[in-house]
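Lecture notes, structural biology module. Today: joint structure prediction for complexes of two components.
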Amino acid sequence: MSKWKIYTPEGVQDILFDECFLKRNLEGKIRTLFRTNGYFEIETPTLEFYDTFCGDGELTPQETMFKFFDQQGRILVLRPDATIPVARVAATKCKDMQYPARFSYIGNTFRFNELGGGKQNEFTQAGVEILGVNTPEADAEVIATAIASIKAAGIESFQIDIGQVEFFKGLMEETGLSEQDTEQMRVLIDQKDFLGIEELVGRHEIRGDLRDLILELPRLFGCTDIIDRVEKVTFNKRSLAALANLRNVLEILDDYELSKYVSIDLGMVQSLNYYTGIIFRGFTYGVGFPLISGGRYDSLMGKFGKSCPATGFSLGINLIMMAIDRQKIEVEKPCVGSLVCYGKGGRKVAFKLCEVLRSQGMTVELAVMDNDIEKSKKYASGKGIDGVIYILDSKNIELYNLKTGEITKTSIDELLR
Amino acid sequence: MRYLTIALSKGRLADLSIDLFESIGIDCSELKGSSRKLILKDEANKIKFFLAKPADVPTYVEYGAADIGIVGKDTLLEEGRHLYEVLNLGFAACKMVVAGPEELQGKLDNLNNKRVATKYPRIAREYFEHKRRESIEIIKLSGSVELAPLVGLSEVIVDLVESGRTLKENGLVILDTISDISARLVVNRVSMKMDSERINKIIDGIRKQLEKG
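The predicted structure, tokenised, for the full assembly:
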């Protein structure tokens, strides 16, 4: 009955040594970045009620969630998303907080085959949310923070695509298409399925200029002068307001001196029942999926009892690691500087020396096998440890540099001086 | 410069794709040779090609292992991958249909329990459940699907039809058309953004060729 005992389930991974070292470093750098930008970190439970994530508008498709039951028979899920719990906390426990409130999180989320995790079922997400304000400044700050976190990870060539979902919503409103047709249109545009769009548009009576604009939508991405061009041929008020908002955010990002990382995509229309304004995604070489996704979601908190504007982003730590690996970016690896071993009578001194060296920030391993210098040297060179400190007795010490073969004789007093 | 990687579907689609790429000035001579190499290159344009089983092409493109792919719409519908479908290449045209015995013509709705034999379980399910709002039993086969209704394995089939000759010779008729099928050019979502200039050049080149006819 134990045939699975040596395996891990599909879509989850052991993360070992070098990778784990890198992952913790990345999380550390990103956490520092969030803290220095004034975001306060929160941790929400790994388990939540199914109801938090489902409900109207299908926030998270039920087939993507890991589900089970509690003792009262209620449905539980493994957290499939990090933003929704933040919205729950903010709307229920931080109702009277002074706005804008800034939250951050770093934690694991679970979904079947989620793109944001590089098709893994368990993946780590880090992100921030600014709650309580609907200003282009807040949207720009979130994007700037997203860019800063990719850079903090050591990735230099990447791109952030920014869109505005109100642009699409305005156009659809004007066509008078049914909700169902609008959703179909959204899917087609999201897939840049030109043929499908043409076919759908052809089935309805849509004014000429509007039709041309819709057909053009999947191609409306690239440099920022697209906005100028589109502004001249758009007549819908809602869409025009969206373009003005987008332009505003871009101007702010220009003052951040981040324009070189930014481009426009007006055909970005994923998760419309979630996003209500600016929407963005981050890409880099070597990873086929977006590293970062984010945007404004002003109606989510209302679902938990307090309407409140909000904007944020989340970044896939596992995807960042994949990019670092594929782009062959140099990263720090875990290593041990010295091995300390001791002869009879040297034990107490050895412990003291380790303590002192470690307090100076060195990585020191203490020999715990039998304390034979030859065996210790062999062990050290096998493990890639370059220095062996051999403490013969309470006074005399020999330093072996395994790289050069050099042996230095010294004493504890001299070494600690 | 980074190589752009193009995944081609093995078989007839590959030959037609090669003609198309050559017409826009990409060197496919290595592809046409009888080499056993799996990855072939056009060094001048920094393009790599590989041939894959058609059903796998969308997977390579979705994961970004290939930036561009050429694959039939049937495979795209069946695989349901996250990628950009940017061009209809027009060739390898056929239809995805529901077919069955003559006596079911116009009576598909009256059939209570439908067993549907197909190589395309996802397309069949999508069509019956979303478009017709019916529950069905899928019977997955890997070839000669027309046989199923003849020997009582299923009531109807969902399959690709080109000329309709096989159906006709076996007393089957088309009951409904699900979709028009032809070869498509697909692009990875990230590549489209990161390498938009080079990819758009290829897309525009091919589009012009297609318009020329």
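Point to remember: The radius of gyration of chain B is 20 Å.
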